[in-house]
Structure formats: C-alpha cells, structure tokens
Write a structure and sequence with these properties.
Blueprint: E1 10-12, E2 19-21, H1 25-29, H2 33-45, E3 56-60, H3 66-73, E4 78-83, H4 86-95, E5 101-105, E6 118-124, H5 134-143, E7 144-154, H6 165-174, H7 177-180, H8 195-204, E8 208-214, H9 224-233, H10 237-243, H11 247-260, E9 269-274
Parallel strand pairs: 3-4, 3-6, 4-5, 6-7
Antiparallel strand pairs: 1-2, 7-9, 8-9
Helix pairs in contact: 6-11
Length: about 280
C-alpha cells in the first residue's frame, strides 16, 4: 500500500455532520478492474466508442479516471469528470494529460450541471453511496441534450421487498466494541436504491428506459484474495483510510457473518436511459 492511503484527508457530506475520510486513488486502482470492464460493456452497448466527434460527456463519481480516459481517447468525447475525492481528481488530471478532459472535486449530493450540454452522462458504481439520489438524478437528466444517453450502474439495486440484509449485517459488525469507536469517522454508508424505483423516477423526469440489467457479475471476486482486494478498494475504502491494514480483519469478520447469513448479495444493477429527441 502506498503512503497516501494513510493520509487522512477528510470531506464532509451534505446530509451528515460526520466528516468522511477521502478515498485514495492508489488503493482504488488496485481493485476496480471488474467495475471498469462493466462500465465499458455499457458504453459498447450505446456505441460510445465510435470515434466520430460526439461532443460533451460527463462522468459523475469518476474515480481515478479510467472510464474518463477511455471516453476521451477512444471515443472522442470532451469529458467533464467529477468526484468527491481530491485524490481521485488528481489521478484523473495526471492520467488524462493532453486529452479534452476537465476534472473537478464535487460531492454528487450537491451536483450542478449545465442544462442541455451533454450527449452522454454516466455514473458508474457511485449512487449506492448517496442517501438521496433524486437531486443528483435531476441534474443528470436536465444536463442531457435531446437523444442523449444516461448510463447508471450501482450496487444494492434489489427490489424493496427483499430488504437490505447486506447492510444490516455489515452494520452489526461495525457496531462491535472493537470497531465502533475506531470507525466513528468512517461509518457504514451504503444505501438501497431499487431498480424499479429508479426506473420509475427517471421516466417521471421524461427519459425513456432503453435497457436494464440486474445482478451483474463483476470480475475480481472469484477467489477470496480478489474479493478482499475489491472490498478494500471500494466498499471499505473509507474504513481502509482510517484502519490501515487492520481493515483486513474488519473485512474478514464481515465476510464470515455475511456468508453465515447468506447475505453476500451485492445486487449490481444497470439502467441505460435516453432523452427523447
């Protein structure tokens, strides 16, 4: 692990007074290959890699910028990239040097996008960190040009009727005496946005649903080492900053209880929607 993983830079979220540790780009890079490939699959389905000039795209919750770079370099897009982490934005700027990319720090809860600017707006593996996604989605929808595409991928998209055993089980581990004090600055932040509710919301905002996918398999968790690496880089990213290598023990305890309760269902979900002409 690189040293910047332990640099405790913090950001404050809109809906909470708890100051959250800033995600580390270097840690994230080590475990997000599967998420990147899933995002690329979605882009292929809308022909985003066509090298003709496509105009403007926005990637919200851009992480370290792998998708941003691909959209600019391979797809010919001018990309506006936004993420809550300065570490991530620094990585985007470095990765995309010389490409038509602008990158800025932005809490997605406070997202503000120029209306009718973007032919493509994407948000991959971010929405489940938002307690309320309505304002964020409104900004994305309003920013689309006519015939523009919205690509959303997120976890925890199971039907409301199935509950949220994954989060409830993790919270039980986080509340154990050995962790509860140490994790005060990095509480569990994972939210349930059912796909049917998200689809209905987007339709109410005037979009047409092009396609949906549920229970998407993300590569990288086929073995225990790969699963831990993926969890450390994403689901437990804030806790990794606070706990350092002790996060591995937290992950072990969490996986044990999740498996015992058959609660390790991530429910990775995708919606592709289009703004009518």
């Amino acid at each position: 692990m690189t040293n910047d993983t332990f640099s405790k830079s913090f950001t404050q979220t809109k809906d909470s007074k708890v100051t959250q540790p800033e995600w580390s780009a270097s840690e994230y890079e080590e475990g997000n290959e599967g998420q990147f490939q899933a995002a690329c699959h979605a882009m292929e389905s809308i022909n985003a890699w066509n090298t003709r000039d496509k105009g403007y795209a926005a990637d919200i919750g851009c992480g370290s910028g792998r998708l941003v770079e691909a959209l600019a370099r391979k797809g010919g897009w001018q990309v506006d990239a936004k993420d809550v982490s300065q570490s991530m934005i620094d990585a985007v700027i470095k990765r995309c040097e010389g490409l038509p990319v602008t990158a800025s720090v932005c809490d997605a809860s406070d997202l503000s996008l120029e209306k009718n600017k973007y032919a493509l707006v994407s948000s991959c593996w971010m929405l489940h960190w938002l307690k309320n996604a309505t304002n964020t989605l409104e900004q994305m929808v309003n920013a689309l040009t006519p015939s523009g595409n919205l690509v959303l991928q997120w976890s925890c998209g199971q039907p409301r009727s199935e509950g949220f055993l994954l989060r409830d089980t993790l919270q039980e581990v986080f509340d154990r005496p050995k962790w509860i004090e140490r994790l005060k600055s990095a509480p569990l932040a994972m939210y349930h946005h059912p796909i049917e509710e998200m689809s209905s919301l987007l339709e109410s905002m005037g979009l047409e649903i092009v396609s949906t996918r549920e229970n998407i398999l993300i590569s990288g968790g086929e073995n225990i080492a790969g699963l831990k690496r993926s969890l450390r880089s994403a689901a437990f990213a804030a806790q990794t900053v606070v706990l350092g290598d002790d996060v591995d023990e937290l992950i072990d305890e969490s996986l044990y209880l999740l498996n015992a309760r058959n609660a390790l269902r991530i429910s990775n979900t995708e919606i592709i929607a289009r703004k009518p002409d």
